[in-house]
């Protein structure tokens, strides 16, 4: 259209340029007619007086004389000037059109060059990333895949583009879950944070993928499909599993270390019911030999049975405590758990001349892993007892309290020990940091991990008169 405009203007100029030739011919004809009229006798009589001697013809008009061969001057016609000006204007328009066309062509070439550079840049960027990109239309048909996605699943772009569900990279073992998530994405219900799914490579290997879907919008603002970013998280999942296993081994080691440190106290604790059983059995034999009443014998046997149950309970608690197991959440009677922990720690407390007091009546049942939570609280109790080794005997009091507060349960373990120095407070919960001469420095770190696994918090405060109180806040809602 732009190229046709100058051609049209030139054609119009060529057509309009013809009338000046005709105008010039009219003027010549007029001059020739005037000459013939002057040569005619009647014409001369009309214009002036004839000189019979052949002298020059003069017209007595009172203005000027007209010599033979002279012509009347004819004024330049107005149409000629207009045509000339029009030609100049058309030439200017033609030049302006050519200049505009040149600008347009240069701008278009620059835009095409910029577009090509942008496409090349985006193509290079898409080819260099390790994240797979997959575009689908509203019907679920694949319209684009980048090299990273092809490398991830093992199929070429030619094999994938244009395919409709089910896709070749869908794992048969998880076909129902994959189809359900596919339908959710097309319905616009995909999780905004992405979702994990099992996919299959061309060699049959199953891998874990994290997919984040986003809508595709064209230049007119219309929703035309979905763009998915696909990340292979198989190695990350393996690393997380390995880290979980290492954490589990570390927890088991910490429990074994704790029980090793308490071995002497637990041995004494077991010796008490065993010695009592032995004494009650000896008494029963004496009562039988002396022919005592059956009621006396039954009372002694009942006490013997109670001590046996006590010994069995202690052994069972030690076994449950040191056994490795998968974390599990179950209803936990917090008051009963704290009572058991106080019973378990009392022997060690008496040996170190520490008095344990508690107040945790009327506590609600919470959802928790009894073994992990019990280990965390037991570690805090043992730390409190050890912190009072240099405290005067009258002030060696370990206080354990618990109460419900709104939507959480607050547990506090307080001691009257030496307290925590300011320089140690910042690193107290870091792994392998300890203020003890003997210790691994993992106790408090594990305690915090256990509490946070129950969506709780663990922190401490220094008491004004010396000592430290550790606080645990656990939610009442299920974890």
Task: Please provide a written account of the structure.
By secondary structure, this protein is α+β, with helices and mostly antiparallel strands. The protein folds into 4 domains: 4-105; 129-232, 2-Layer Sandwich (Beta-Lactamase), CATH 3.30.450.20; 237-326, no CATH class; 329-479, Histidine kinase-like ATPase, C-terminal domain (Heat Shock Protein 90), CATH 3.30.565. The protein contains 14 helices and 12 strands. It has a 5-stranded antiparallel β-sheet with strand order 2-1-5-4-3, with helices on both faces. A hairpin with a 5-residue loop joins strand 4 and strand 5. The longest helix is centred in the N-terminal third of the chain and has 51 residues, at 78-128. 18% of the residues are buried. The model is unreliable at 1-28 and 33-64 (pLDDT under 50).
Please state the CA-atom Rg, rounded to the nearest Å. 54 Å
What is the beta-strand fraction? 15-25%
Mean pLDDT level: 76
Write the CATH homologous superfamily of the largest domain. Histidine kinase-like ATPase, C-terminal domain
User: What general form does the structure show?
Assistant: elongated
Q: Might you state the CATH topology name of the largest domain? A: Heat Shock Protein 90
Helix/strand order, N-terminal first: HHHHEEHHHEEEHHHEHEEHEEHHEE
Specify the structural class: alpha+beta
Number of strands: 12
Distance between the termini: 72 Å
Number of structurally distinct domains: 4
What is the name of the CATH architecture of the largest domain?
2-Layer Sandwich
Assigned CATH class of the largest domain: Alpha Beta
Oligomer: single chain
**The biggest beta sheet, please?**
5 strands, antiparallel
